[in-house]
Design goal:
The chain is α+β, with helices and mostly antiparallel strands. It has helices at about 10-20, 35-45, 75-80, and strands at about 5, 20-25, 50-55, 60-65. The relative contact order is 0.25.
Length: about 80
């Protein structure tokens, strides 16, 4: 099961990347925060400080992934072609 589905590229999500070092991703509804953290660190070669999740009304789930100090969320965004 793919834990990370696709990044969110709304204006608000891009703002979180630049201001708070946070990347927003749609994830599998069954994935745990730890699953998200491990997968994100493996795929993007960065350390994750924290993961917050939100269940959406249409039975989907969103993860707010805060990248640790010393790493840059905008580098991840560049790899994803978000900015």
């Amino acid at each position: 099961m793919p834990v990370l589905k696709h990044p969110i590229a709304t204006e608000k999500a891009i703002g979180l990347i630049t201001k708070n070092n946070v990347v927003v991703y749609m994830i599998d509804p069954r994935a745990t925060k730890n699953d998200v953290k491990k997968e994100f660190e493996r795929v993007f070669s960065v350390k994750v400080q924290s993961v917050h999740t939100a269940n959406m009304p249409n039975n989907t789930r969103k993860a707010f992934i805060k990248v640790a100090k010393g790493f840059n969320a905008s580098d991840v965004a560049m790899k994803l072609k978000l900015v």
